[in-house]
Amino acid sequence: MALQIRKIETKEESERKQKRNTLILSIIMISILVFSTAGYFSIRDDNSGTKNSNGDNGVQNIGNYWVFNYQGNNIRLSNSPESTQNVSVVMFKRINDYAGKTIYVASDYDSGLYEISSTFGNYVERIQPACYGSCDKNLPEKNCSDTMIVIKKLNETDAKSKVYEQENCAFIEGDLNAVDAFLYRIFGVR
After folding, report:
1. Residue 113 domain boundaries
2. Which of 37, 52, 76, 151 could form a disulfide with 112 if both were Cys (CB 3.0 to 4.6 A apart)?
């Protein structure tokens, strides 16, 4: 084994080397900071894999769902705002009108109840399945004196899907597309 002997440096040479190494390390660190910041913003502006719907409403297609942000929460629906345009929606209530209340939901199909429950969950006291009027199920029987959402599935021979209000009830007549039209209206997207 051969031992290498290190050359003795003067104090000036040692300080010059240290300043050069510090300058090189500073340039590397600053360039990493600049490029990572530029990369973050370019990725953020790129909607890779997502599609904005209706431009300004903030609804994006992510996988099989349509997602928009409301008060820091992502709301996920099954249908796009465009596909709900053929549903007649005549109502004035917004999500704030339901906030902090128990919402009773009478639904002809589970997917409608699920869509309401998954979106309203963070804003209401609770969601309670119920019957609109009398029924044979083991559920509370409610009417429009309670805050209620009634979802009725239409037959193929029935009229066009629609959403409307009557007293404290919101009536949704149609399929999941009509439920999403109701939700887009409640959250102010449509």
Report:
1. 89-186
2. 151
Quick one: pLDDT at residue 173?
93
Angle at 95 between CA 60 and CA 147, to 5 degrees: 135
Nearest-angstrom CA–CA distance, 139 and 108: 14
> Would you mind telling me the total number of residues written for the chain in this entry?
190
Number of domains into which the chain is organized? 1
Instruction: Give the residue from 137, 101, 99, 117 showing the smallest Cα distance to 179.
Output: 117
Grade residue 47 by pLDDT with cuts at 50, 70 and 90: very low
Lowest mean pLDDT among 42-56, 66-80, 168-182: 42-56
Q: What radius of gyration, in Å, describes the C-alpha atoms of the chain?
A: 30
Q: Give yes or no for residue 57 having a pLDDT over 70.
A: no
Between CA 136 and CA 130 the distance in angstroms is 11
CA 156 to CA 160: how far, in whole Å? 9
Is position 121 within any domain? yes
Taken in order 113, 115, 120, 121, the sign of the CA dihedral is: positive
- Distance between CA atoms of 21 and 51, rounded to whole angstroms? 47
pLDDT tens for each residue of 130-174:
999 888 889 999 999 999 999 998 876 667 899 999 999 999 999
In Å, how far are 37, 89, 116, 128 from 119, measured between CA atoms?
Answer: 34, 18, 5, 14
Do the domain assignments include residue 137?
Answer: yes
